[in-house]
Amino acid sequence: MIDPRQVHDTLRQHQLTDGFPFVMDLEKSQGSWIYDARSGKRYLDFFTCFASWPIGYNHPGTLEEKFRRDIELTGRNKPANSDLYTTHMAEFVHAFATKVTPSQFPYHFWVSGGALAVENALKVAFDWKAQKVGPQNCNDGNDLVILHFKAAFHGRSGYTMSLTNTVADKVALFPKFQWPRVHNPGIVFDLDGNIANDIEAEEARACQDIEAAFECYAGRIAAIILEPMQGEGGDVHFRPEFFQKLRQYADQHEALLIYDEVQTGFFGSGKPWLWQTKGVEPDVVAFGKKTQVCGLYAGKRVDEVPNNVFHRSSRINSTWGGNLVDMVRCHKFIDIILEEKLDQNIAARGEQMVQGLRAIAREKGGMENVRGVGSLVAFTLDSAETRDAMIQAMMERELLVLASGPKAIRFRLPLVVTADEVDTALERTSEALSTLVGA
Ligand SMILES: Cc1ncc(COP(=O)(O)O)c(C=O)c1O
Q: Which of 93, 178, 254, 433 is most solvent-facing, going by the fewest CB within 10 Å?
């Protein structure tokens, strides 16, 4: 057994080791707290493994006997779920499809990893569009493109790298497709939560870009893809009115509307899916992170092309078809979240966090555009340097957060977080801010 103090040195001999300086103790980490096996310190986890860990560490529900047996059994054996079915898989799929996916979306596909979830959503759209226009009219699919947004993050795999455009380093020097990229009309909030920028002008600019793209790539845009809130790009929120516009463009130009809910989905907003807070239905949703097993669900519009990927073998597939341990774990998470009403909890705790941050910003200054819903909360600082210093000051106060966009900080709260823990996070944030603004 490696001594916790040797973990970084051991890893460093074999791989890049640029993560947190502490070592997570998997047994002693509990709820919203990560226990450092090196120092014995406890970190308040508002990072939640890049928004992927919803119910806190060692949730009592995960100690239940049947779940432990199922995890052990599926851990010992890894079936290729794409072709080899189990009762565990059927129980999971049924729970997900009836309790998490809205009923108007009959089709599912499972895969490991968020980028691959998005990539397969794009394949659903390419296949659909190519059959719609005819292979002879799109150079056998090769001429098809995806309309996407500035500040988008959709992953780092082959197709998704052509969409991702946040930190240049993440995609630089790799070959990419030149697909149409349009303005992202984000809302800026004042400290009372009102829209502070000229959002209609922002949206008009985006619509101008979109219309130009549909003209330039006539008959070739297979899908519009958007994160319902851009996470990595800076926690950028959009108005429902803008989603309505996107729906209209997608319908008018025979493109699919895809939402990337890898970061925002699975109760992170208090609803199963963030798009439900906007009220505008997509055609396809890609998900991952909190769901453990990643994938997509699709609505009936794909059936405008009868021989689509959900009816034809092998058009989208992978060896493992997701991961059965992840499916069993996701099933348990669904039960826990719904039984304990963690969706309602996180909606309330998110509001507490936003209001608390606005109060700090009013009192001390230095922080602006406080925004968020449920577990997805953020604020902006005056520069990248201040932001980086703030993250360091928060870390020194044992509060874990994430950078977001050019100069923002995002919190990704665990759904189990308590009101006291939110207060603690606010106190630590306030203290950290004081070291920067001197208030
Ligand atoms: C919106 C969004 N899409 C896709 C991805 C890619 O997911 P993964 O890192 O699991 O491939 C991420 C990851 O941060 C994401 O935030």
A: 178
Of all atoms in ligand 1, which is nearest to the CA of residue 230?
Answer: 1
Residue type present at position 306: P
Pairing of strands 284-287, 294-298: antiparallel
pLDDT band at 408 (very low <50, low <70, confident <90, very high): very high
Give per-residue pLDDT as tens, 1-23. Answer: 999 999 999 999 999 999 999 99
At the topology level, CATH places domain 70-337 in Aspartate Aminotransferase; domain 2 (3.40.640)
Q: What is the CA radius of gyration of the chain?
A: 22
Ligand 1, atom 8, lies closest to the CA of 114
Residue with CA at minimum distance from ligand 1 atom 5: 155
Atom of ligand 1 nearest to the CA of 160: 4
The pLDDT-based confidence of 438 (bands split at 50, 70, 90) is confident
pLDDT tens digits along 370-379:
999 999 999 9
Contact 432, 390 (CB under 8 A): yes
Residue closest to 56 by CA, chosen among 41, 44, 68, 66: 44
Read off the pLDDT of each residue in 83-106 and give the average, rounded to a whole number.
98
Examine the pLDDT at 415 and tell me if it is beyond 90.
yes
Ligand 1 in contact with 232 (CB < 6 A)?
yes
136 alpha carbon to ligand 1 midpoint, in Å? Answer: 34
Domain boundaries, the chain: 4-59+342-437, 70-337
The finding on whether 115 has its CB within 6 A of some atom of ligand 1 is yes
Q: Calculate the CA 354 to chain-centre distance.
A: 19
Is residue 243 within 8 A of residue 278, CB to CB? The reply is yes
Atom of ligand 1 nearest to the CA of 113: 10
Domain 4-59+342-437: CATH architecture, name and number where available: Alpha-Beta Complex (3.90)
- Probe residue for ligand 1, chosen from 118, 171, 237, 264 as the CB with the greatest number of ligand atoms within 8 Å: 118
| Amino acid identity at 434 | S
* Ligand 1 centroid from CA 306, angstroms: 30
Check if 114 has its Cβ closer than 6 Å to any atom of ligand 1.
Answer: yes
Cβ contacts of residue 123 below 8 Å, gap of 6+? Answer: 309, 315, 316
Mutate to test the pocket of ligand 1, among 154, 285, 291, 318 (most ligand atoms within 8 A of CB): 154
CA-CA-CA-CA torsion sign (134, 138, 140, 143):
negative
